[in-house]
Amino acid sequence: MNTFFLSVALGLCFLMLFSLYRVLFGPTVLDRLVGVNAIGSKTVVLLLLIGFLYERVDMFVDIALAYAFLNFVAVLAASRYFHKRKGLYEESFLD
């Protein structure tokens, strides 16, 4: 069963690379925020898989819930900031 959890965790890490690409090369700020939120959501699942691997799910559930809350608040704060700044739908500054 540990090999199953480990393979799912590695597959999830591979899928996080697609979201990281969107964060780094997203054409708009909104694309970058969605990419950061997707990475955060996948990290919560990854923390739970690590909990299953170490057989300490109770501890990792608490950590995953705290991380999910922080991720949610951070994305909300960033989107509110860029919405107030009127830069949410403009082209990125890296291009």
UniProtKB/TrEMBL annotation:
Its membrane topology: Multi-pass membrane protein
Major subcellular location class: membrane
Superkingdom of origin organism: Bacteria
Annotated localization: Cell membrane
One Pfam match: MrpF_PhaF
Entry keyword annotation includes Cell membrane: yes
InterPro entries linked: MrpF/PhaF-like
Spans traversing the lipid bilayer: 6-24, 36-54, 60-78
Record's keyword terms, sorted: Cell membrane, Membrane, Transmembrane, Transmembrane helix, Transport
Membrane found in the keyword field: yes
A GO cellular component annotation in the UniProt record: plasma membrane
GO molecular function (one): sodium:proton antiporter activity
Assigned protein family: Belongs to the CPA3 antiporters (TC 2.A.63) subunit F family.
Name of the protein this chain belongs to: Multisubunit sodium/proton antiporter, MrpF subunit
